[in-house]
């Protein structure tokens, strides 16, 4: 059986500047992978390239999803195949309620509008699953939301759209201790043995709640080290530069 996502020697640039310089990664069903690394290493670029952001140009390699080469597909085509991206900085949409936004998202992904009654039932079920107050649905999307509320909405979207593969781009960014716990619990509730997850983060703290089986370090557009769940704690002690230098020298 093919992996959910296979990235093969992926190279990409933005505005003519090379960012990804040969990334190879394989994520299977039921697997949680964490991607760590310093600022500017290419983590967010990788997430954007996986989802076909038009600003980023693939210059080499390919991206396979469930065995299909999706490198040339539009973002919406990837979403319709069961892929999902949670943004590091979700934008506000004043005047658009969370409920209407989510119903429109479902229509965009599944190709047809869900009946209002069945949608409300589904939304209520997912909000109960994640412990979200019903009043949340009537608020405008991210308008006046705290950092934790923005990230909880991202996870609610993921729960509702039910993707097979998701990338969470620094979902822990800007969260306090309580918000981090709530968001992490939501991620764990949405995951299943049939799904795959790539969790991009700078810090170990979210990995204390969402447990990855595999951890990778990205530096200067390349994965320079991979390991198991103990690797983040080691990185917390040694820092990225020390370990990346060792990894680069070992590979040379």
Please give a structural write-up.
With 252 residues, the chain is of the alpha/beta class. The chain has a single domain, classed as P-loop containing nucleotide triphosphate hydrolases (Rossmann fold, 3-Layer(aba) Sandwich). Helices cover 36% and strands 28% of the residues. The chain is built from eight helices and twelve strands. The protein has helices spanning 43-50, 75-80, 98-110, 116-130, 147-161, 177-190, 231-238, 240-251; strands at residues 5-14, 17-27, 32-36, 56-65, 68-69, 83-86, 93-97, 140-141, 165-169, 196-200, 214-219, 222-227. The strands form three sheets. It has a six-stranded mixed sheet, sandwiched between helices. Strands 2-1-4-5 form a four-stranded antiparallel sheet. Strands 7-8 form a two-stranded antiparallel sheet. A hairpin with a 2-residue loop joins strand 4 and strand 5 (68-69). It is globular. It starts with a strand and ends with a helix.
Report the principal-axis shape: globular
Distance between the termini: 33 Å
Quick one: CATH class? Alpha Beta
Whole-number mean pLDDT? 91
Helix content: 25-40%
Number of strands: 12
- The secondary-structure class comes to alpha/beta
- The H-level CATH homologous superfamily, spelled out, is P-loop containing nucleotide triphosphate hydrolases
| CATH fold annotation | Rossmann fold
